[in-house]
Write a structure and sequence with these properties.
alpha+beta; 2 helices; four-stranded antiparallel β-sheet; single chain
Length: about 180
């Protein structure tokens, strides 16, 4: 029978070699780097989600601001398409007054400017569509139905643009459209 002395026990105990230590460092480093990349991706996604949430709210504000407006101007009827001379966002009195407007700072549902949100803007277009063919007139560059044509229905599009600082270009964060029928 062989007896082990404390000296033989010490000789059998091994420490980490330099290669094992280096490999462990690389493995831990790759894991930390991957985790940091994941956090960065999650932060970017969180920012984009926040912008989209604000975009949804701002598009809804335009829809609500137009909800009780008549289809045609109460004074001029269908004589003009777009805002009449002298009208401002607070005095627009029919849905086509919103056409072609870029609203910055954006407005709330009562058409009050949201001055603290000047990094966002609402871009609105209103185009006539045929009531029995709601997918008509989709090409803004070459409309099939002139804007001055009364059809009894209109497509309203709202694009929400975002720019965190004034030196950067505007980026679309949300787009929404709906059909409005003449009552």
């Amino acid at each position: 029978m062989m007896f082990r002395t404390p000296q033989t026990i010490l000789h059998r105990r091994r420490a980490f070699t330099l290669i094992e230590t280096a490999m462990a460092t690389v493995i831990v480093g790759v894991g930390i780097f991957g985790t940091m990349a994941l956090f960065a991706a999650c932060s970017n996604q969180n920012n984009e989600s926040g912008q989209m949430t604000v975009g949804i709210m701002l598009a809804d504000n335009v829809q609500e601001a137009m909800a009780n407006l008549p289809f045609n101007d109460p004074v001029w009827g269908r004589a003009t398409f777009g805002a009449e001379t002298g009208e401002t966002v607070t005095t627009w009195n029919d849905i086509d007054d919103f056409d072609g407007k870029t609203i910055n700072p954006p407005i709330d549902s009562l058409r009050t400017p949201l001055t603290g949100m000047s990094q966002y803007q609402q871009v609105v277009t209103v185009v006539p569509v045929y009531p029995g063919q709601l997918s008509s007139n989709t090409n803004d560059a070459s409309p099939a139905i002139p804007k001055t044509t009364y059809t009894g229905a209109a497509r309203v599009r709202v694009r929400i643009m975002y720019r965190p600082v004034t030196t950067l270009p505007w980026q679309e964060v949300y787009r929404y459209s709906w059909i409005r029928l003449d009552r």
